[in-house]
Every structure is written in C-alpha cells, then in structure tokens.
Specification:
The complex is a heterodimer of chains A (180) and B (78). Chain A is α/β, with parallel strands linked by helices. Chain A has six helices and five strands. The chains are: A alpha/beta (180), B alpha+beta (78).
Chain lengths: 180, 78
C-alpha cells in the first residue's frame, strides 16, 4: 500500500532526545465503576506512550483489583446528582430516596454499562489486562488490605504489595502524581 | 526510508485510549524505519496522535481525513 508522505506541520512532534521516560504515579481510592475508568485509562495511555506507571490501590480502590468484586463494580444513584435520568424522553432525575430503594443500584449500573458498551469503551477487565501487558506496576496498599477485609489471595495476578513509603519513593521521582 | 506501510491498524469504532494503545502494540511489531497506518473515527485523535508521537519519539509523517475516518501514518524511530 502506498502511503501519503506529505508532512503535516501542525501535527508534527518528534523530539530528538529521550533521556528518561516520564513517570506517572496514581493513588486509586474509589471502588465504583465510574471511578475505576479514569485511572485505568490514564495509566494504560501513559504506558502506551512509553511512561513508567505505578498504581497504588487503597481503601475501596482495592475492589478494582479484587477477583470477585472487580466484575461487580457498580455505580450508585444515591448522592449522585449527576446521574442522568433513566429515560431520555422523561427528563426526571432519580430522587435520592428513590435511588436508595432495592434494585436501583443494579439498574443504574446496568444503564451505565449499556452506555459504555454503546460507546465502545474497553471494559475494566480489558483495561487491567492491557495494564499488565504494558508492564504497569500495580500495588495493593498492604495497610488497607486488613481494613477492607481483603486477603492477598483475593487479588488478581500481577498485583504486588507495598505501603506509603514505597509509593512516596516512586511518586517523588515521578512527573505526574494523581490521587483519584 | 520506507514509504510503504508495513502494518495497518483499524481502530475505527474504538475510543480513547484504545487507538493509541493499538498503535503502540503495532509499532513494536514493525522494524525501525517502517510505517504504521492508523485508521480511527475518534474526533480527538489529531491531538492524541501528535502527543503520542511526541512522547514516544516516533514520527507522525502524514495524516489525512475523509468524512468518516482519520488516517495517521507513523514511522517507528527507535
């Protein structure tokens, strides 16, 4: 196949030297479906750009790397004023009290998953697999494992264990640090 | 310098970050100096591809677009 080799100046970007890959350090403390995406998208993107990435999962964030809880990550309509109405034609938001009724959380989760599928968004398991493939270092905070009642065997393969000093050591040498 | 595209990545229908991740996977499989062409319908892809190339050191040698598809040609530099 013949490629069009005409250079396009406004999208050119090729630095000459790469002394050190950039580093991204993430703390992930939330365990809802909507909060699982941003760190995994950032991490896999950074790794695909040649960055070194480490993610520290702590508190509810541990659920994202939990074998049994990860497939069940959900989104709650309670205390979530941004939750869009379930039907586009009826622009009524779910009142918090109604959102607290049994079944509402699973309905909201189902709804969000269907939007994600429509938007062709990669699933959480897919992003975790890519993260592993790209050599992203994933650490479970060993202090919060006990707090959250999670044992090391509960976590997916490839997750290591470390604490705050190890995170700070990595973050201190990082170009971007985010708490999510 | 090669002017033939060695690998084509059809990332149409995929959203960020998948087009650049697929590009990263493809570029590792071609030789240095060879070209990878990415097809995508992601409207943010122009900025994303430029940023990806700037960070990875690979060269964005061409881009084009029709009504539905953006095409980017990237040369593996290292």
């Amino acid at each position: 196949m013949k490629a069009d080799i005409a250079a396009v100046p406004d999208v050119q970007g090729t630095p000459e030297e790469f002394p050190q890959p950039k580093r991204l350090a993430l703390i992930v403390s939330k365990g809802t479906l909507d909060q699982a995406y941003p760190p995994l998208v950032m991490a896999t993107t950074a790794a695909s750009m040649g960055w070194e990435v480490a993610i520290f999962f702590t508190f509810y964030g541990l659920d994202i790397v939990h074998r049994d809880r990860m497939p069940k990550l959900s989104v709650s309509p309670v205390g979530n004023p941004a939750m869009p109405p379930p039907m586009k034609r009826v622009p009524v938001h779910i009142p918090t009290l109604v959102g607290a009724l049994p079944g509402m959380k699973s309905a909201a989760t189902k709804m969000m998953k269907s939007w994600m599928e429509k938007a062709n968004l990669a699933s959480i398991p897919e992003l975790l697999e890519i993260a592993n493939e790209l050599g992203i270092r994933m650490y479970a905070c060993n202090t919060t494992l006990n707090v959250m009642g999670v044992s090391k065997e509960d976590l997916i393969d490839g997750v290591e264990f470390a604490g705050a000093p190890a995170f700070l050591d990595f973050a201190g040498e990082s170009d971007v640090q985010l708490f999510i | 310098m090669d002017t033939q595209v060695a690998t084509q990545v059809d990332a149409r229908g995929l959203v960020c970050p998948m087009p650049t991740i697929r590009l990263g996977q493809a570029i590792r499989k071609v030789e240095i100096g060879e070209l990878v062409e990415v097809w995508t319908d992601d409207p943010g892809s122009k900025e994303n591809m430029a940023a990806w190339c700037k960070n990875t050191g690979h060269e964005l040698v061409a881009n084009s677009a029709d009504e539905t598809t953006f095409k980017y040609t990237v040369r593996r530099k290292r």
